[in-house]
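Example record used in the benchmark description.
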Amino acid sequence: MRLKSFLWVVSFALLLSSCIAKKKRSYSQAKKAYEKSSAQGSKPNALLDENTAGFTTYTFNSAEEYIRTFAPIALEEMEAYGIPASITLAQGLLESGAGSSNLVRKSNNHFGIKCHTKWRGPSTTHDDDEKGECFRKYLHPRESYRDHSLFLANGSRYAFLFDYRTTDYKAWARGLKKAGYATDPKYPAKLIAQIQKYNLDQYDHPRKAQRIIKENSENPISSYLSDRIHQVQKGDTLFGISKKYGLSVDTLKKINGLKNNDIQVGTSLIISIK
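Model output (structure tokens):
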């Protein structure tokens, strides 16, 4: 009987340590991905510049259409960085007015991320807490979603968020306010309300999310992504991928903020932002 009790305690301890390790890995992986990019203030994509010839915006007829459009990207970001897809979508809805705000129309900035002192990418001015504040600008909404992930994965004031499970959207919502993402005291309640109203937490479960996304696969950004994202497979090398898409290795590394030639299976590499 004592042996059974001992084995049960050991098994429970191992399970608990495994869960903790998974959460720790979630943050460490996000931090590693962040550190592979340029410094936080640098461009999320090295090909972004002041030339807006490739500037692409989309209009949405409803919040539901916005969700269907960006759900695949939110899921991809969750798998890459450990940020709940529901939180990403809710923030996008709230910060961008479901893609209809003036800031989005002129900058593709779906998360209201300001320039901050080290930002060296394109920018625009917009009245927020103060008049004429500097906000980051992106050629395509996809870049805004990736920069949002990198912004949270910085590892300073947002680091504790990655101790929460990706299915605990309430903890993430409250944590974002605690970390200072927004000044509105009702920000957590607003995020939670968006998630519950549109059932966004279903996207925090990858298998279920994939089924839903498959049913709504026809959208402009999904089409855009299909030709511009390469999922790293076993045996892939940067040289081989660059040859396949007619790019140089250096260009591929710049696009994805890579400092060396190491790539992990399952990583999504941006191939083009034209």
